[in-house]
Design goal:
Helix content: 40-55%
Radius of gyration: 20 Å
Bound molecules: zinc ion
CATH superfamily of the largest domain: Glycoside hydrolase/deacetylase
Number of domains: 2
Structural class: alpha/beta
CATH architecture of the largest domain: Alpha-Beta Barrel
CATH class of the largest domain: Alpha Beta
Number of strands: 12
Length: 334
């Protein structure tokens, strides 16, 4: 009870601070201070879904929310490509870059029409293994399997990975538990993980496939998406494993293969890279530089100072259920 009261008090203080900090006079001051040194503001999304899709996937932002977010951001920022943000002439307003990780089909279904109508530049980091094999990565297969009504109990205790109760209600708490389960499985070595994923899928049965499952674009869709003049294609590895958890030679090969396939598929240069799940270290940063990429981005919910290592550029992460006022604080360096 006491813990619950402390939590409520903490939430109330947080809400008050957020409300004060994002109110016009204070926020204007925070903006001027944050923009003084012209940091890069790079946002990281994963994919978009329909407004009516009941997908408890942290990676899927409803298209209506994305539209409103872009409109709000355009009041303060010029939304530009990463190359323009890095090398273009400084405008009178701060610039902001939108990036999308992985290459989900939502980019084709929902984002592409918007890019065309709004002339909105984006950088999409594509993980190529799922597209080459036309099969979702393990994490998307699990997300799809855990949608739909009803409670699921996933017991991985025998493997030391705990007991998970998912649902029964649609919403933030179910989405959070699914995310925690994925994070736990991400840390397992890839050769051990397949069997665990199979166990999760078996225990999740019977599976009601969601109306709009997460999963990769087809190769044809990727080609059409990449041909849009507002799209820059970046690489995101072939395997999408945590690259600092596998041998460096394997990680290097996965990075190089994703770039080569993307060049072959799209007939475009591929100059930018994003570390899957943001996992990186000095060896990986050096490897990405050695392979001739111009930049690589991470996810640390920060603005990127102008003098930052170009192979570890900061990005601010945005997913389903994230609050706009929280993002506004991140955008001024808090
Ligand atoms: Zn990714």
């Amino acid at each position: 009870m006491a813990a619950r009261i402390r939590q409520l008090a903490r939430d109330a203080v947080k809400s008050t601070v957020l409300a004060l900090a994002t109110a016009p006079p204070v926020y204007g001051h925070l903006q001027r201070r944050a923009w003084r040194d012209r940091p890069l503001s790079i946002l990281c999304f994963h994919t978009l879904g329909g407004d009516a899709d009941l997908m408890d996937a942290w990676t899927v932002l409803p298209i209506g929310e994305f539209r409103r977010l872009v409109a709000a951001l355009r009041e303060d920022y010029d939304i530009v490509s990463l190359d323009q943000a890095l090398h273009g002439p400084a405008g009178t307003r701060p610039s902001l870059v939108l990036t999308f990780d992985d290459g989900d089909i939502g980019l084709y279904d929902h984002l592409l029409p918007l890019l065309r109508s709004e002339e909105l530049p984006v950088l999409a980091y594509i993980a190529t293994g799922q597209i080459a094999e036309a099969t979702p990565y393990w994490f998307d297969r699990i997300v799809n399997a855990l949608q739909g009504p009803g409670e699921r109990r996933i017991d991985l205790a025998a493997d030391g990975l705990g007991l998970w109760t998912i649902g029964p209600e649609y919403g933030l708490s179910r989405c959070t538990v699914i995310g925690q389960l994925l994070n736990r499985l991400k840390t397992v070595a890839p050769d051990r993980r397949e069997a665990l994923v199979a166990q999760v899928l078996e225990q999740a049965a019977p599976i009601t496939p969601p109306a709009s499952p997460v999963g990769p674009m087809s190769l044809e869709q990727l080609r059409e998406f990449a041909a849009c003049p507002h799209v820059t294609i970046g690489a995101h590895s072939h395997c999408h494993n945590l690259l600092d958890q596998i041998p460096l030679a394997e990680a290097a090969a996965s990075i190089a293969l994703s770039r080569q396939l993307l060049r072959d598929w799209t007939r475009q240069d591929v100059a930018h890279f994003a570390y899957p799940n943001s996992n990186h270290n000095a060896e990986l940063r050096a490897e990405v530089a050695r392979q001739g990429f111009a930049t690589a981005t991470v996810l640390d919910d920060s603005l990127a100072p102008r003098d930052q290592d170009p192979f570890a550029l900061s990005r601010i992460n945005i997913g389903r259920y994230n609050r706009l006022d929280r993002l506004r604080l991140r955008l001024v360096g808090y």
